[in-house]
Specification:
Length: 107
């Protein structure tokens, strides 16, 4: 929505400080070019509206996946820790998937 419209719609929206949202941007499986230059990565930009504690956005581009975290410093004072936890859990998930594939494929 254009900024004047979204500002008017959200002007009186107040959410409890513990609220959050998670969303995903549409992924692109093939490389995109601008003129002759290949786009290195595509990401989405999210905002946390007034009163929202945390917004997590996920998007993908070709063979990469990215997560964006936007948070209230009072509600989520150590947002960097969440990134560390997310990274650790994604690595654990990848290990689990590799093990399952090896068992299933016999290798």
């Amino acid at each position: 929505l254009p900024a004047p419209v979204s500002e008017a719609l959200l002007r009186n929206v107040r959410l409890p400080g513990e609220s959050g949202s998670a969303s995903s941007g549409g992924g692109v499986s093939q490389r995109v070019y601008i003129s002759v230059a290949a786009v290195a990565f595509k990401t989405t930009i999210s905002i946390a509206i007034d009163g929202m504690g945390l917004n997590i956005t996920c998007t993908s581009y070709v063979d990469k996946m990215a997560f964006g975290l936007t948070g209230c410093r009072r509600t989520v004072p150590h947002l960097q820790r969440l990134l560390g936890y997310l990274d650790s859990e994604l690595k654990a998930l990848a290990r689990t998937i590799r093990k399952a594939c090896r068992r299933r494929c016999g290798g």
